[in-house]
Amino acid sequence: MRVSFNWLKDYVDIRMQPEQLAQKLTMAGLEITSATRIDQDTIWEIEVTPNRTDCLSILGIAREVAALTGKKLKLPKIGSLRGSGRGSIPIQIADKRLCPFYLGRVIKNIQVQPSPSWLRANLEMMGVRSVNNIVDITNFCLLELGQPLHAFDLDKLSGQRLIIRRAQAKEELITIDGMSRQLESPMLVVADKTSIQAIAGIMGGKSSEVTEATTNILLESAYFDALSVHHTSRKLGLATQSSYRFERGVDAAGVTLASLRATQLIKKIAGTKKKKSKAISIGKLIKKGKKVSQLNNRVRLRYQQASELLGIEIPPAEIKEILRALQFKLVRKSPTALMVEIPSFRPDLSREADLIEEIARLYSYERIPTKLGQFAPDLARPVGPGLSSGATNTTDWLLRQILSALGLHEIMTYSLISRQALRKLGIPEDNIIRVKNPLSYEQEVMRPTLLAGMLSAFLCNLNRKNKNLKLFELSRIYFKQDSRTRERASLAIGVGGKKPDNWMHKMGEYSFFDLKGVVEALLLKLGVPDLNFQEAEAPIFIPGRTAFVLAGDKNLGLLGEVKNEILEKFDITSCLYLAELNLEELRAQIHQEKRFVPLAKFPAAARDVSFFAPPEVSSDEIAALIKKIGRGLVAQVSLFDQYFGEQIPPGFRALSFSIEYRSDERTLTAEEVDKLHAQIRQALNEELKVELR
Amino acid sequence: MPAKLPQKIKSLRKKIEKIEKQARVDLEQAQTQQELENVRIKCLGRNSELAQLLKLIPELSLKYKPEFGRLVNTLKRTLEESLSGKNVLLRKLKQEQALKIDITMPGMIQESGTIHPLSQTLQEIMQIFLNLGFSVAEGPEIETDYYNFSALNIPEGHPSRETFHTFYIDTGDLLRSQTSPVQVRVMEKQKPPLRIIAPGRVYRPDATDASHSFMFHQIEGLAVDRNISFADLKGTLSVFINAVFGSKTKMRFRPHFFPFTEPSAEVDISCIICGGKGCRVCSFKGWLEILGAGMVDPNVFSAVKYDPQHWQGFAFGMGVERIAMLKYGITDIRLFFENDVRFLRQF
User: Fold this and answer.
1) B46, exposed or middle or buried, with CB in 10 Å at 0-12, 13-18, 19+?
2) What SS3 state is found at A161?
3) What 8-state DSSP symbol labels residue A239?
4) Which fold has domain A605-692?
5) Do B337 and A413 touch (CB under 8 A)?
6) pLDDT for A649-676, tens place per residue?
7) What does pTM read for this prediction?
8) What is the CB-side half-sphere exposure of residue A212 using CA atoms within 13 A?
9) Which of B111, B129, B160, B229 to mutate to test the interface with A (most CBs of A within 10 A)?
10) A267 touching B (Cβ < 8 Å)
11) pLDDT in tens, A481-491
12) Is residue B103 part of a domain?
């Protein structure tokens, strides 16, 4: 809401600088968001919250200033205007719910001409373009009083009658701005005998607008249903100063006042000085419907309730003073409570809490103490169902700490992604949640996986020549399950690009085993039991380079090397290794309780074994067999070399394991270890068909 | 074959002197551990002159034996001491030479990763409220109209809905435009008194620019008890503000409107850049708006079947991105979601 400081001064005695008053208003809930000096005036932009419809006018702001500064409000002087002139037309309200109250007045023999300079200046300061005196007067009253008005060219109204009704399907109106508007039921319109002349409370029609040729008008001041104006304005995509006020609710008592005010001004500046028969003629006020009365305009205020809610006892005398300053009537007073009558311009106030806010606002929030007395920390309070004293949160924080310690950067990507990204990943759309009103194609669906975001993070970084990429994201994914929406916590990990070389070591590229190492390190640190990996298949990963991550037989997720054709679709040229784990499953597998295991008392003896392994034999199988034959005396098996080369039979690979033998009861003799080692070599050869070297 | 016996001690002394002299020369010349080892073998080894002398001792007559033995053993000790002295000297020398490295060369850094600045900010804020006895509650991001609006006293068509642009999804539900629905869900399940905070993602279809994002994070707070007042709200938030922005930061409550609180306030902090003097960050106002708060509206209590006559409480909500941007001096909200590692590495 724009406000001219000079105009404001017409309605209330202001004895302070604009800056000072701006500060006062801001701290009372009318935030001055900008102040501009123009000539001798200051123009404010005030943020009026949706509840304060009363502040959408200069008079409303003046009323607030008066209450805050203790000055008297100076209302414009409007005498009674009975109207004795000829002319009255039939007005019918067909929908009393959407238009409970309508005032019309016929005014004849006016002279439409440019406005006098004071009127033009007032409108211009407020950023409203001057049109002609009649239109300017309706706009002046809207800005001054907050009540939108409309003037019809009476002679253009077919049948010289008006009906306020709902539009019918396919009715049309060319509005004042020259646009053709398609109307439909239940939009409320003002129509003459044959056609629509205005969209009620929003904008008038071109055909009956007041022009320089107009001599007779019908002045409309009405109360239109806020919701109806809101819906129509939304549907038509047409928002005006008028609709803005109606949809927030105008002052029921202001409808008559505005009509009188406009009539008074029209009489003053649009009258002709021609011969008597052509003198301006003010018709009688045509009243239709009933004045809207507020439902709950009496509210009880208990002093104790105010002090309990605010945490401070404000003396009753001060409370009464505040309420009177706001022009509230105190209809009954007792030592403990007040009955307050709320004026019609404050439809937002209907409950005790609303009054307490008014009191606090004028008393000043700043004067309310800052205390933690009643509200001391209560750590013994039991945590309710579905709540955590940070448990999920602690787990997630632990994950973040471990992964970042492992050298990974946490990323955050948007929950909304494009359908194109789904297609690129080969994800069918059956169980995808779609956004009905996306801002762009990039926000069409809710992500069913974190991998799409991970890929875009890689793309962004690779494009910017950031080469060493180890990333993770811990967030939700969304999908439909049994036709209901589901949200599930997920963890994505990705490595790719080039490891950073240094002067001592040349590091090379990332591989599957770098990613697997991160996953293993994380899950081991979290205490996930029986961690194992099994070959898997997935649409986005290269077959044979994809694995399930399992805790025992609980599937925690997948990891693998991304297929080239998918990388190409995302314009990524470097190899990528991604994992996505079901965080809910993973959380259930976390075991953080520690148990001490006694340190080994007896020394270990190490022996190596090297062989050519046939293609179908896996490292896990070899290790398992070694342990089996070792009968509890194998403390550790570790693979320390893999080699492919010409000397090796095709498909085979040379593997070398180091085996650590140890007993918990005694020191093993060299003979014992050699014997067991020989048995293991033999078993590997016989059972797994490896060629020993 | 026995060596020729020195019949007189005098000649033995000469012999010893000669051995000692030779040993000194040899030791002097030894520059490496290996050379030193050769000297040791020559002086003390099985075929050394000393060994020859020692072998003679048992054959000597009693007359010469004690004196001879004493002299030879002294020689042995002297040689051993000289060798060991030289050994220490050589090792020290070797270490001195070995220590000469270019210590300005880069170390082998194990580059650690980072936790996203928004996660860090969220965690910091949550920790403050956990310390004040709040619990953490989470709720769905896909919400119903009821929880996102109606139960929060935002009826259909009410102008206050205008301020909450909302994404709708194909099932008819919506993406929550605020974390406040979590308040309602918790109160439905749990009897008062309670204190919760609810962190999470929220969505509003606003065009993205340096200060707006269609997706961002909020933290919602709610405390309900018999006697929780606006003054307690001010107290709680001042603890929070001082913890996050420092004890010198001032706080200011401005009346505002939110459908779910009455009275409502917007909370400003004195500009952390200029300290309140006015600068570009605070648009020369000296104050930065950082959160919304108020006393829970009686209609919200009624919606969850709490008796507004018996219970009162406060609620507050803040944007995590806003706080992180102020805290770290980040000027573009989009940086949080672009995930450029040059950005992430800084936190």
Assistant:
1) exposed
2) coil
3) -
4) Alpha-Beta Plaits (3.30.70)
5) yes
6) 888 999 999 999 999 999 999 999 999 9
7) 0.85
8) 4
9) B229
10) no
11) 988 999 999 99
12) no
Q: Which residue has the tokens 């991160």?
A: A518
Burial class (CB in 10 A: 0-12, 13-18, 19+), A412: buried
Coil, strand or helix at B165: coil
**Which tokens belong to A43?**
């123009």
The answer to whether A311 contacts B169, with C-beta atoms less than 8 Å apart, is no
Nearest to A690 by CA among A596, A642, A622: A622
Which of B98, B125, B157 is where one domain is finished? B98
User: Beta B135-137 vs B194-203: how paired, if at all?
Assistant: parallel
Note whether A218 and A104 are within 8 A (CB).
Answer: yes
**Structure tokens of A385?**
């169902």
In 3-state terms, what secondary structure has residue A366?
A: helix
pLDDT band at A79 (very low <50, low <70, confident <90, very high): confident
Which domain range does residue B301 map to? 117-344
Q: Is residue B128 assigned to a domain?
A: yes
Average pLDDT over chain B, rounded to an integer: 89
Q: What is the pLDDT of residues A404-431, one digit of tens each?
A: 999 999 999 999 999 999 999 999 999 9
Specify the CATH number for the domain of residue B206. Answer: 3.30.930.10
Give the pLDDT confidence score for residue B3 in this predicted structure. Answer: 47
pLDDT at position A378 is 53
Instruction: List % helix, strand, coil for chain B (3-state, nearest 5).
Output: 45, 20, 35
State the Cα–Cα distance between residues B298 and A266, nearest whole angstrom: 47
Element (H, E) at B144: none
The token duo for A413 is: 């990507």
State the pLDDT at residue B6. 52
Domain positions in chain A = 2-69, 91-289, 298-367, 392-500+507-588, 605-692
Determine whether the interchain pair A365/B265 forms a contact, defined as Cβ–Cβ distance below 8 Å. yes
d(CA A519, CA A408): 11
User: Coil, strand, or helix at residue A31?
Assistant: strand
Please name the residues in contact with A107: beta carbons below 8 A apart, sequence gap of 6 or more.
A85, A87, A216, A217, A218, A219, A263, A266, A280, A281, A282, A283
What is the Rg, in whole angstroms, of the alpha carbon atoms belonging to chain B? 43
Residues of chain A with pLDDT > 70, as a percent, come to 96
pLDDT score of A682 more than 80: yes
Contact between A400 and B115 using a beta-carbon 8 Å cutoff? yes
Query: What pLDDT, in 10s, does the model give residues A225-258?
Result: 999 999 999 999 999 999 999 998 899 889 999 9
Where are the alpha helices (H) located in A364-444, listed in sequence order?
391-405, 419-425
B78 touches chain A (CB under 8 A): no
* B64 confidence band (pLDDT: 50, 70, 90): confident
What DSSP letter does each residue of A304-315 carry, written as one string?
Answer: HHHHHHHTS---
Q: Position A210: which residue type?
A: V
From residue A353, alpha-carbon distances to A301, A482, A563, A626, B317 in Å are 9, 44, 62, 77, 20
The residue out of B71, B98, B125 marking a domain boundary is: B98
Residue B1: per-residue pLDDT: 38
pLDDT band at A375 (very low <50, low <70, confident <90, very high): low
Residues B84 and B122 occupy one common structural domain: no
Class of domain A392-500+507-588: alpha beta
Q: Do B339 and A411 touch (CB under 8 A)?
A: yes
Show the tokens assigned to B260: 């779910």
Q: How far is CA A505 from the centre of its chain?
A: 49
Which of A410, A447, A463 is the best mutation test for B, with the most CBs of B within 10 A?
A: A410
Q: Residue B193: is the preceding peptide bond cis (ω within 30°)?
A: yes
Q: What is the mean pLDDT of chain A?
A: 92
- Residue A388, C-beta contacts closer than 8 angstroms, at least 6 positions apart: B135, B136, B137
Complex prediction ipTM: 0.87
Give the type of residue at A494.
G
Amino acid identity of residue A267, one-letter, is: K
